[in-house]
Structures are given as C-alpha cells and as structure tokens.
Predict the 3D structure of the following.
Amino acid sequence: MTNTTVKHPPFEPFPLLSNGHLMTIVPTFIPRRFPTLANSERRRIFEVSPGVKLLAQCHWQHERLKHPTLILVHGLEGSADSHSVLGVTIKALARSFNVVRMNMRNCGGTFHMTPTLYDSGMSQDVLWIVNELYREGLKEICLAGWSMGGNIVLKAAAELGERGPETLSAVCAISPAIDLPTCITILEKGFNRVYERHFLTGLKTLLRRKASIFPGIFDLSNLDKINSLKQFDEKYTAYYGGWGSAQTYYEKASALPVMHQIRVPTLVIQAKDDPLIPFCSFESPTLQSEFITLIATDHGGHGGFLQKDVEQESDFDHFWAENRAINFLKSKTSQAFAKSYLEFI
C-alpha cells in the first residue's frame, strides 16, 4: 500500500486562495528575493548527447563530496531561475546540500545549445547528469521537480528500477504531470484554455527562436494555424522528438505507467483542486508502493501551496510544499537531522 504514515503539518491555504485557479496564479506574482544565491552559483555545461548541451547553475558546499546533492528540475516554460526552484535551493543550502539547478533543453536562454526541442519524456537528460555527478564522487544524490519536471524525475527514478538505490537517495515531485493524456484533455476545457494559450504562446515563441538559430530544421509554415497544445505536440513535439504521434508521446512520456518500478524513497505532493492535473491519476494502483508517499491536500492548486502561516523553522516560509520537500529529502540522506527535528516533514 502507499505509505501514508508520514507526519506533516496540515496545509491551510492563505486567506481567499482556497480556489484552485487563484492558488495556481496568485503565488507566481508574489515577489521573492534570493540575493545570496548569485554569489555562490557556478555555471556548468553538461553535454548529455553529441551536440546537445544543458546549462546548470551549481551551488557547492565546502568539501562537496561530503555533502548530499540535490538536482532540481523546473516545469513547462520555466527555468533554473523559477521562484520555486530558487526557494528550494536556499533551503537546501541551509541544510548542507549541494544544489544543481538544471535548465531543460532550450530553457534559461539556452536556445543555441541544442538543435532539439524539449518535452515531458526527457528523463535521460536527468539521468545523464545524475550519472556524471556520481562518477565524480557525489554519492548521495536526490531529485526534485515541479509539474513537467516532476513527471521527469519520477520517470527517471522508475527507469532506474532496482538500480535506483545505487545512485539516488530520494525523489520528490510537486504537482507532477504524471498522466499526460488526462492532462492534455483537461487543458482543453473551460478556464483551462487560458493556461493552454499561455503555454502555447511560449512554445511558439521558442520554436520561432529555434528556427532562426538552426535554419532549415523546423517547418513553420503551419505554425500560426495551430491553436491547441495537442496540435503543437502532433506537429512539432512528437514529430521532431521522434515519438511519432502526439498520443504515443503522451503515453510513453508519462511517468504513471512505470511508477511501480520506483525503488527509492519518493514523495509526491498533489492538491485535489489542481486545475491542470486531475487527481484521479494519483489514485492509480501504480502508486501503491512502499517506496512512494503521497501527500494529497484538498487545496493547493497547481504548484501553489501558499499557506496561511509561516512555520516555526527559521528559514521556512509560506511556501508549504517547498518546506515539505526539503525536509523529506534531508531525512533520506546520511546527514539527516536529529529525530526531534523531523517530527514533521
């Protein structure tokens, strides 16, 4: 059965944000400043396959090999500078983690680093970075991701299967898009069309930029006629990504069908009122595993989880899911805090 015995402070939404759409949108506009991060970050390029390079912002502790390492994977249209990524970074550094903020292909201003596009199935990029860091002597490696990035880190852990514990200590996914067929269907309905148009505008802009840098690769002749994500995925994501069709892409890129293969401690945080990801996906038998802990909240929206009160820990804030993620991951490393500190995750 799914591990539901883990303790955590209940999520109480910030006043007036009990609506899933408001909780999804409002937290993205809250100013957050992380002035100390720029002083510690180091740019690093990972060439994950011939001609395909990824940019990561790395934060290393003194004597980095003695510390656990956390790789963070952002969501669709995000980057290593997404506020949620930076929020977890500052908390992880305070708890002795090295942190690697990964930009997925083309994200974070890296259009020129690869002729390829990016998609929800690129777990191989994450695993390449995991293996590279492991070979360098970093033996306790954790993963965390949001939305599309959440799907990717779960898929990566599942693909490792029984070999997972050799390189991974723990995984956390916040609002992960684990079932792409249901996600794409719900995006086409009602108010969710606003989100779809937002994502589609960003993807079209990305594609035009790519075509200007790598002329002759992408056919843009029908781009202006595309008015849904499914059409975009059919014409571009699936075709140029080698998936064949959009439906095949959705099925094979989703983590849900393979999550039963996960063999490392895994935390999934999901709100029942998430407007972008139907909660029915998280009731699937594939999540019924001793390795997977599901924290399901009535409210939280898509990746919002802005809570009413600030927690007692000095550097914890209103971002409840970030606080849960970092305490869970820390508890699964050899440098876990004392049991009294982990009364709650």
Notes: Residues 192-213 form the longest helix (22 residues).
